[in-house]
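sorry to bug you again but im stuck and you know this stuff better than me. what follows is a protein written twice so to speak, once as letters and once as structure tokens for the fold. id like you to explain what the token line says about the fold, in plain words if possible. anything you notice is useful, everything is just below.
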Amino acid sequence: MNEHTPIEVSAVLPCLNEEKTIGLCIEKAQDAFKRLGIQGEVVVSDNGSTDGSVALSKSMGARVVHCSLKGYGAALINGINSARGEIVVMADADDTYDWSSIGDFVNKVREGYDLVMGNRFKGGIEPGAMPFLHKYLGNPVLSAVARFAFNTKVGDFHCGMRGFRKQAIQSLNLKSTGMEFATEMVANAARHQLRIVEIPTTLAVDKRDRAPHLRSFRDGWRHLRFILTYAPDYLFLAPGLAALVIGLILLSLLSLGPISLFGVYFGIHYLALACLLTLVGYNTLWIGIFAKTMVAQKFEILKTPVIRYFSESFRLEFGLLGGALLVVAGVVVDFLIFVEWISNIADPMDDTIHPAFAATTVIAIGVSTILNSFLLSLQNELKSS
């Protein structure tokens, strides 16, 4: 096969010191190509191996491309970009995934799917192939959180064997260099409304004689961090709105003084809680708006009417006016309390504590509105320039 031979399928293997197992993977992929009559190639994306992985891969007819940027995601991005096939099947080089099953992934892509995900929980996991915490806690929980955050039905977000149309995945402009690349691919594919399907795949015991590159807590956190960062609705907007609503309800009930409801006394301590929830909720909502407008620049599907308003139609003057009105309202109340204090300077002012807290909170919200309006206006101007 020469460089001008048309290639339909590229098998991409990220590699970092995989001398013991990479030969098995290459052999299985090449045998699958022959058996299925597929014009294919094996691409080994080497991430700085110091053993015999590169020499062995070349001797077996694989094409080796080198990646200087370290990381699982970096190696895969390099391999995908270097692939000559219209269809790419990727999997690890440790022989835990069955490279002889390439045809199952290729057939689904041929049917019109953009991304074909393997699902190890449906296909079968050999005893000892996946650590207990990964199998029953890490993978299920992270996959559940990701399904909710990115509105997709993918059951195994972290399966390393998957097939896809090269052009479709390249259009996602994936950036993650670490293990979270696996999550980014599915999340971006879902956000871009690509056609995704899952098929059962198996996971075998790692045949290497060294520790795996995966680090449970470090890489688990990187996956979770990516999910939260790119899901502002659930990290900022929903919690912020909940806190603000609860805070405003309490604040409105307690702004004139303590009350009793259903035999429960609500006094100054609940007013302090109301002020806290109101301020934290309000500012968290603003952070969510900034985050959502930034993420929506990349994913058109996230541009709801509210986000379109803040990113395209928001006028600085409206924000300044609204904030100023809130500040004035709070200052007026505080001024009236001050006048009463001057008139009764020797008397206690306990009955004005609740209104003073409420007025001060309103002033703080007004100032926050003014400052955040300037920041949003700046963000929109920089985006359009």
